[in-house]
Design goal:
Number of helices: 9
CATH superfamily of one domain: P-loop containing nucleotide triphosphate hydrolases
Oligomer: single chain
Strand order of the largest sheet: 6-9-10-3-11-12
Shape: globular
Number of strands: 12
Low-confidence stretches: none
Mean pLDDT: 91
CATH architecture of one domain: 3-Layer(aba) Sandwich
Distance between the termini: 74 Å
CATH class of one domain: Alpha Beta
């Protein structure tokens, strides 16, 4: 009798986070702004980072952007420990930040903003043609309908300005973006434009930490949601496993969904 040979199953390769923040601590004087927070981000994923004012979400993201190195903890990029002491370090690792203000030079056009501080040279002068060509390609990926390449960005719509800011980040090979309140003060049409930009970035494998007070934006765009409360992480939840009320309960009461009572959830609308 021949004993059949059974194949040994091959374990699927484990996915490695694009970015991981491990046990991050940040204090200002005697105030603990971030207390032992661990979150991660995978390629092609949006993670919403939410919490009330003073929850610590902005400070946490500043550690990744290089604006405020952590007092302790570890940052990993593609599974490797890294040191991010300033924004240049972050950019060199493919981590870019798009601030709520967008930090655009209003009097300059899209190509000049995309290459601001990293201008291309043609012998002794700026290579305007090369910068415009590159800008047309990168913005074309994000928004094929964008036509205002010669217009000062001051005269662009909010959605178009976001496209310029995002193009500036990904032109220089960003793999992870921190987006701070990207739809704040935008109307419905412009918000829809920005949502489309974010979905395009996801399709290209770029990971996004989305910092937002708009719970509807977070649910529309995120796969996972990390909630902070008074400097600590309440939890990270899969969007499809929770309701907006449960996430609001995490934000307002600082409790994970399993510890929220029906009465507490009802009182959120009281």
């Amino acid at each position: 009798m021949i004993t059949p040979v059974t194949a040994t199953p091959i374990a699927a390769p484990q996915r490695v986070p694009l970015v991981e923040l491990r046990n991050i601590h940040v204090a200002f004087g005697g105030v603990r702004a971030v207390a032992g927070v661990t979150i991660d981000l995978y390629a092609g994923e949006v993670v919403g980072v939410v919490g009330g004012n003073g929850a610590g979400k902005t400070t946490l993201m500043r550690t990744l952007s290089g604006a405020r190195p952590p007092d302790s903890g570890q940052i990993l990029v593609n599974g490797q420990p890294v040191t991010i002491g300033n924004p240049r370090d972050a950019k060199a690792l493919g981590v870019e930040t798009i601030y709520q203000t967008l930090a655009l030079a209003d009097n300059l056009d899209a190509p000049a903003n995309v290459f601001l501080g990293r201008e291309l040279q043609a012998t002794t002068t700026l290579d305007d043609a090369a910068m415009e060509s590159a800008t047309r390609k990168v913005i074309g990926r994000l928004n094929p309908n964008f036509k205002n390449f010669k217009t000062p960005v001051l005269r662009l719509s909010g959605g178009q300005r976001q496209a310029v800011a995002i193009a500036r980040a990904i032109q220089f090979n960003a793999r992870a973006l921190i987006m701070d309140e990207p739809t704040a003060a935008l109307g419905p049409a412009e918000t829809a434009q920005v949502h489309s930009l974010i979905r395009q970035l996801k399709s290209e494998g770029i990971g996004i930490f989305l910092v937002s007070h708009d719970i509807h934006d977070v649910f529309d765009l995120s796969e996972r949601i990390s909630v902070m409360y008074h400097g600590r992480l309440v939890g990270t939840v899969n969007k499809n496993d929770v309701t907006t009320d449960e996430v609001l309960g995490m934000i307002i009461l600082g409790k994970p969904p399993t510890k929220l009572t029906r009465q507490e959830l009802a009182e959120l609308h009281g």
